[in-house]
Specification:
The structure is a single chain. By secondary structure, this protein is of the alpha+beta class. The longest helix has 18 residues. It folds into 2 domains: 230 residues, 3-Layer(aba) Sandwich (Rossmann fold); 117 residues, Beta Barrel (OB fold (Dihydrolipoamide Acetyltransferase, E2P)), CATH 2.40.50.140. Helix 2 crosses helix 3 and helix 2 packs parallel to helix 4. The protein binds adenosine-5'-triphosphate (ATP) and magnesium ion. The site of magnesium ion (MG) has 2 residues, from helix 1.
Length: 364
């Protein structure tokens, strides 16, 4: 088991920088998820840890040991990819036993390790089957089993369940997290799916265009995004953004939009750091921090029109049309407003964000 540290790590392909000055500390035994859209540098980062790509600049450390120049086979890491690459002519048992055989371990020990891993992954009854006799989820469990029999220092999982169907993905999220907790092995897990990262990781590293945007717990990344990009990427349905102005109404700062005005709380005012009156800001508010009704409430409300309703089982998402934008509101499935009808949206005053309109940096 190992602690993994990235120190000013760069990956360049010719002139193109795929990973820029990456700094992450992943404690021993913890679960780090690298999250970001396609092409942001996730796999490049992973491949540098595995030793499959040269590190262009900076250092990667396992505990206190710099591993930049260590051969892949000496790094003691086990990788699982989206493409699980099982040997088609070998049984599940032989597939899982293979890494141990290659290391010259003796038969009884191999049998022991494979049986234990198969039990943990609940594939003990499949050991005699060939890969073509397995479902996608079962194959993926065999691939994970093959990684865990070795008891490596570190797991590197690169989108291991991306191609599975939604239900199986949800199931595997739980299984992988449970497996990692049980074994206590440090995990670096790459995904473009924010739900996967949110539900499994101790720490999420959010990447965009090769740069680390934010490193934090799932709660921190969700509740205190450092910029508008992270705020928009994390959370489903996505955060709503509205361009607003800060105005001064008799000494009281207000967030003003053509459709509404919202008084800032004292602690929110402090966070504006002097970006005072008349500054343009982007307001960010998640669909679950809004409430909708068909009658005008007592508190100040945004007036709009129902655009469309989407029923998502236990919740309903209502898209509301304002004069110059559309916003999404999460509400109860009983909501009865029909498209075209006037409606009123109120904002939870503790749960909205303001971002610098130019840099995207969060004020709060
Ligand atoms: N061998 C290579 N040579 C040149 N450019 C590369 C090479 N490998 C990756 N890149 C580029 O580096 C960037 C990051 O690629 P990487 O594979 O790390 O992205 P990713 O975040 O894993 O994306 P995905 O989610 O699609 O797997 C991309 O723009 C990609 O085109
Ligand atoms: Mg990738």
């Amino acid at each position: 088991m190992a602690r993994v540290t990235f120190r000013n790590v760069w990956k360049k392909y010719g002139e193109f920088a795929a990973v820029k000055d990456l700094n992450i500390d992943c404690p021993d035994g913890s679960f780090l998820s690298i999250l970001g859209p396609s092409g942001c540098g996730k796999s490049s980062t992973m491949r540098m840890v595995a030793g499959l790509e040269h590190i262009s600049a900076g250092d990667i450390l396992f505990d206190d040991r710099r591993i930049n120049d260590l051969a892949p086979k000496d790094r003691d890491v086990a990788m699982v990819f989206e493409n699980y690459a099982l040997y088609p002519h070998k049984s599940v048992f032989e597939n899982m036993a293979n890494p141990l055989k290659l290391r010259g371990q003796e038969g009884a020990r191999i049998k022991d390790r494979v049986t234990q891993a198969a039990k943990l992954l609940e594939i003990g009854h499949l050991l005699e089957r060939r890969p073509q006799e397995l479902s996608g989820g079962q194959k993926q469990r065999v691939a994970i089993g093959r990684a865990i029999v070795r008891e490596p220092k570190l797991f590197l999982f690169d989108e291991p369940i991306a191609h599975l169907d939604a239900k199986l993905r949800a199931h595997m999220r739980g299984e992988i997290k449970h497996m990692q907790r049980t074994l206590g092995t440090t995990m670096v897990y790459v995904t473009h799916d924010q739900l996967e990262a949110m539900s499994m990781a101790d720490q999420i590293a959010v990447m965009h265009e090769g740069e680390l945007q934010q490193l934090g717990s799932p709660r921190e990344v969700y509740n205190k995004p450092v910029n508008a990009w992270v705020a928009g990427f994390v959370g489903e349905p996505a955060m709503n953004f509205l361009t607003c102005e800060i105005t001064n109404a008799g000494g009281k700062l207000m967030l003003t939009h053509p459709d509404f005005a919202l008084a800032l709380k004292p602690e929110q005012m402090k966070c504006l750091n002097g970006a005072g009156t008349a500054a343009t800001v982007r307001m960010g508010v998640r669909p679950d921090a809004l409430a909708i009704s068909m009658t005008r409430p007592a508190e100040p409300a945004i007036t709009g029109k129902v655009f469309v309703n989407e029923l998502l089982g236990g919740d309903m998402i209502v898209e509301v049309e304002l004069a110059d934008a559309r916003i999404r509101v999460k509400t109860a499935p009983e909501f009865a407003g029909a498209p075209g009808e006037a409606c009123y949206v109120t904002v939870n005053r503790d749960k909205w964000h303001a971002f610098d309109a130019v840099t995207g940096k969060a004020f709060f």
